[in-house]
Amino acid sequence: MAAKVGLTGGIGSGKSAVAEAFAALGVTVIDADRIARRLSQPGGAAFDAIAAQFGAEILDAQGRIDRRRLGRMVFASQQKRRQLEAILHPPIRAEMNARARDDARPYCILDIPLLIESGWHLDMRRVLVVTCARDERVRRIEQRAGNRMSRADIQRVMNSQVNDAARLKSADDVIDNNRGIDELQPQVRRLHATYTAMFS
Which of 79, 84, 99, 149 is buried most deeply by CB count within 10 Å? Predict the structure, then answer.
């Protein structure tokens, strides 16, 4: 069983780039968002419950969940966000834990955007937080290829998440991503060496 290292950071912080850097070093990365997308597809374990809870207005012309439409709905309402989390979080957590148990490496990365908000950080051996200034995060999201989020959408998501100060209270390790992708690699390599030694 691999030790669980919880990775988190606000939208636009560079958390995904950090996860990719760990994966390039041969570390198993288990992505909560990817599992959520699969569970939410037609035929997925959570699709019927989400459609029943939020209604036909979240479905596109092909009968699939329109993630942008659903996102706007849940990020505008704490109650709706909690309803969605109540559907998705238990199966996501069960799958991530099972995959960590089956991993023979010293440690694995659990990439979880709402790690702190959900209280799941208490189940981790280490908590790794990626930090970046809010204005820089907004700028990066707006410049992403294929970005479909308005600035208002971005702000709604950010406002639904805890801020970096709250994340840092639960952090064992921190990656500063204010200076861009080139500064991430050495930080990831140092942490990889630390975790490998710690959990081997």
Answer: 84
